[in-house]
From TrEMBL:
Coiled coil segments of this chain: none
Topological relation to the membrane, as annotated: Multi-pass membrane protein
The protein's name in its UniProt record: MFS transporter
Superkingdom: Bacteria
Taxonomic classification: Bacteria, Pseudomonadati, Bacteroidota, Chitinophagia, Chitinophagales
Provenance organism: Niabella pedocola
Predominant localisation class: membrane
Major facilitator superfamily (MFS) profile domain mapped to chain residues: 13-502
Length: 508
């Protein structure tokens, strides 16, 4: 009976911690999933590239402040306890997400719109900075000796499952309304933000029933709680050395692998491969669904052979195969051939007068062609200015692309590989970080390198990738050099300095 009781408590701990953390990731990531739509709602019209970069910068800002959240909430967690701290982060995250869905657009309140969204995004980043370390520490301190990698790997699934949930909710909403209704100022794109409040209420209710971590409770009863966790974490040379090693030898490389495999891949499918909304999202959904169990597999395996070699192998695979994989995505979609065919195509023009104008005539060209077995909807717009007598011809663009089924499933397999690398670096890292630091400063010490590695180095992958693409336009794969370079540096440091030791018991 006692064993059953302990197993039941552990399942409850993992379930409650994982659910809350998944919801926080969902809240954090729906902003990035809707970056294109948000850029049109919260920034002035006229320069879509600048608006998208500004939106991605706000998205990245949430990552950049995560280390500050790690310091603030990590300190609270080491002083007051794990349970109450990450309960607070959940409420802060959910409230900020819900409020983003209530902010009026740029057309209504002007420059105040992006400023308010930026503020709420910063609050999201601070909250997430305190959530992950608390959840990982909480589960690790409940785990039996020798199984810390396996049990903390359930927390590791939550980031990807949160992304999966965000993609799923957005797709359900998008597929049940027109594009015009979805993208309107108060349209369907706001529903996923509003939906988060329901998830948060459910999670808060569950977490209120949780008990404090037994290791921290014992520490508190013995009066051994850290008096100044920040000072003990970063002023003691031995501990600060571990913080730096955790950051540059593991978390930094893990962060860029994570965001390349999921966020950069999605952006690439949309902007470079030019897939339609449903196919780009469904490819990522299938890949996530198939890859997610490997978080558990590699967490379990790390309890037996160590964390180091699994994480470094994931980094090395990314370094060696990113450009070939993304190049295959580009070539098999036939994007270059498609652009050439479109520019050379002869089609009939349909003319219509713009509403509420007397001096502009719009010629819209729309037809369907097939190239490499894929169907394309081509659209080209020419604007005739009657008043000035000048003609401005719009450039041909790809409005939509639908891959044939064999190519579609090949793309699912390639994106699965990218996320498989993510499971290798991410599955064992919670146990690795927990084992580096003593209980009384663990929340603070492990949170900072994790959130710098993921929030700064990893979180900047989409923004730097787009920035490089707009600067060096001749190489469609140029955005990959940033994650490849960071992963290579982290691999080299980890190879030389990381230990493969597995701490089977909680030692301080």
């Amino acid at each position: 009976m006692k064993q059953m009781s302990e197993a039941g408590v552990l399942r409850k701990v993992i379930g409650a911690s994982s659910l809350g953390t998944m919801i926080e990731w969902y809240d954090f990531y729906i902003f990035g999933m809707l970056a294109k739509t948000i850029s049109t709602e919260f920034f002035p019209e006229g320069n879509s590239t600048a608006a998208l970069l500004s939106t991605l910068a706000i998205f990245a800002a949430g990552f950049i402040v995560r280390p500050f959240g790690a310091l603030f909430f990590g300190r609270l967690g080491d002083l007051l306890g794990r349970k109450s701290t990450f309960l607070l982060t959940l409420v802060l995250m959910g409230g900020s997400t819900f409020l983003i869905g209530l902010v009026p657009g740029y057309q209504t309140i002007g420059i105040a719109a992006p400023l308010i969204v930026l503020l709420l995004r910063l609050l999201q980043g601070l909250a997430l900075g305190g959530e992950y370390g608390g959840a990982a520490t909480y589960v690790a301190e409940h785990a039996p000796p020798g199984k810390r990698g396996f049990y903390t790997s359930w927390i590791q699934t939550t980031a990807t499952l949160g992304l999966f949930l965000a993609l799923g909710v957005i797709m359900v909403v998008k597929m049940n309304m027109s594009d015009q209704r979805f993208n309107a100022e108060w349209g369907g794109w706001r529903y996923p933000f509003w939906f988060s409040i329901i998830l948060v209420v459910v999670s808060v209710y569950i977490r209120l029933k949780m008990e404090e971590s037994p290791l921290f409770a014992r520490l508190k009863s013995e009066g051994k709680v850290a008096k100044n966790p920040l000072r003990e974490s970063f002023r003691k040379k031995a501990n600060f050395k571990m913080v730096l090693l955790a950051l540059f030898g593991a978390a930094m490389g893990q962060g860029v692998i994570w965001y390349t495999g999921q966020f950069y891949a999605q952006s690439f499918l949309e902007t470079k491969v030019a897939l339609n909304f449903e196919q780009s999202r469904s490819i990522l959904l299938w890949a996530i669904l198939l890859a997610t169990p490997f978080f558990i597999v590699f967490g379990w395996l790390s309890d037996r052979i160590g964390r180091k070699w699994i994480m470094l192998a994931g980094m090395l695979l990314g370094i060696l195969t990113y450009r070939p994989i993304f190049n295959t995505l580009l070539n098999d979609a036939g994007t270059d051939q498609w652009k050439t065919e479109l520019s050379n195509s002869k089609v009939q023009k349909e003319s219509k007068l713009l509403a509420n104008t007397s001096d502009s005539l719009i010629h819209t060209i729309t037809h369907i062609e097939v190239a490499n077995g894929a169907k394309y909807i081509k659209e080209q717009t020419d604007t005739l200015k009657v008043a000035t007598g000048t003609i401005s011809e719009g450039k041909p663009l790809i409005k939509d692309k639908v891959l044939p089924r064999p190519v579609y499933w090949k793309f699912v397999g390639l994106v699965f590989l990218l996320i498989f690398y993510v499971t290798m670096v991410y599955g064992p890292i919670a146990a690795f970080l927990v084992e580096l630091f003593p209980v009384h400063i663990r929340y603070t010490s492990m949170s900072l390198p994790y959130h710098i590695g993921n929030g700064v180095f990893g979180g900047l992958v989409p923004f730097i990738g787009v920035l490089l693409q707009t600067t060096f336009t001749t190489d469609p794969l140029v955005g990959l050099w940033y994650p490849i370079g960071i992963a290579a540096l982290s691999f080299a440091i980890g190879l030389i300095y990381l230990s493969n030791k597995i701490d089977k018991d909680v030692t301080d």
